[in-house]
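Duplicate of earlier report; Electron transfer flavoprotein subunit beta input re-posted below.
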Amino acid sequence: MKIVVAVKRVVDSNVKPRVRVDQTGVDMTNVKMSMNPFDEIAVEEAVRLKEAGVATEVIAVSAGVAQAQETLRTALAIGADRAILIESNEEIQPLAVARLLHAVIERENPQLVILGKQAIDDDSNQTGQMLAALTGWPQATFAAKVDLVGGAALVCREVDGGSETVSLSLPAVITTDLRLNEPRYVTLPSIMKAKKKPLQTLAPGELGVDVTPRLKTLKVVEPPRRAAGVRVPDVQTLLDKLKTEARVI
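Output:
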């Protein structure tokens, strides 16, 4: 079984993003970048499936600028066998990413694709679902547990009411939630070995995909500062304030 895992280069989760002065986006100057945490979980799960003898090869795929090679090297250090970078300086939006992954799938013919449920930079939570629609494959989102049994994937997924277990015939698309696993610590020997693993670079045009943005960001602003709390003398005053001042989120 061959598994494709999609990874994205994002601002490190420990960094507080800064908005540009002109409000056109996030200031990326000298900002630490890392792998999207949900994608790291996806890579870990794919590698565990390989270590269990269920999968034979894990391929990490990313779309973005040349520096995304560093993110792919991290995936290789975790245990992926090889990597593919679809290099572009364009803003690659979720539908374009799904189309690029679809093109890679047609080339590689994997039996399973694993992605993080969302990226922490835009929180779109769209790519996995769009990819499933493009491929016509069954999907399971927000996976908290994955078992591959007899040519099918049993996925316990988190839903609003608790959890549910679904059975997917392979090939399939799975997106990962936080509780699926705890990614391993990447050791120095693993990092050194990752440098020798193959990393292929492609252009979107080689895959026949147009990545021109379809959506335009009008303005990016920081969320409003949280107002200081106030003391109220009694319950009735609290209720009155909730009725007149509380905002629906």
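The chain has one domain: 2-224.

Merging into the original ticket.
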